[in-house]
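Q: Here's a chain of 245 amino acids. Please give me its 3D structure as tokens.
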Amino acid sequence: MRLVVARFISIFDRKQEFDQTDIELIIENEKFKARGKKIVIPGWKEVEDIMLGKEIKEDADDKEITINLKEGDKITPKEVSVVTKKTSPPKPYTEATLLTAMETAGKQIEDEKLREEMKSIGLGTPATRAGIIEKLISVGYVKRNKKNLVPTHNGIQLIEIVHEKLKKPDLTGEWESTLGRIAKKEASSKDFIVDIKKYVAEIIREGAISSFNNVKFENTVKSQEKQKKIVNKKQTASTKAGKQN
């Protein structure tokens, strides 16, 4: 609830403004890149940080670059070192980082045009994103582990069987792009609905062909038993009603 309140209040604050510096260095014909960011106006992020405390942290890669450079400048590296590191799995999402990921979902889109269109859209809206996360938790696809959100067995199974395209933000980008053109009267809403129906039919057809024999959801037996009890109650009620008539 605290997260929902923080997000709701922050949407009324100013936009965050920052200066970003991108540097590309060429050393022995190899390219090296560096990026730095300096917050000028904290805006809504300041309110959110105060209300959520340490749940939201600044990106460690976004450090301020204090050196003044211009294109074509030559620099002399002070030190060169080889660092051996091991790869590690991505950190689990917290509610705060997942909300941020939903806001910036366009970054994961490969198509440059769609990526630009999704920058200001993301997945969901400021009013619905927290509710989407709560829904995933309530239906049992995600669970809380202290501050982290981790997928359940059922959530993992769902991800495995869902059509590949439905799992990518590109689809949302395509639809939002079309809706934008419809709003500008550059596309037909009827054609869009027809395309959606065709797409749904295609997904269902592919799903019917696919084999789900190895997919097992937890608590399915209990659900089936409950359904049988409900059916039996209805049949008993119908039999009694028939006798009375």
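Q: Can you summarize the key feature?
A: The longest helix spans residues 220-244.
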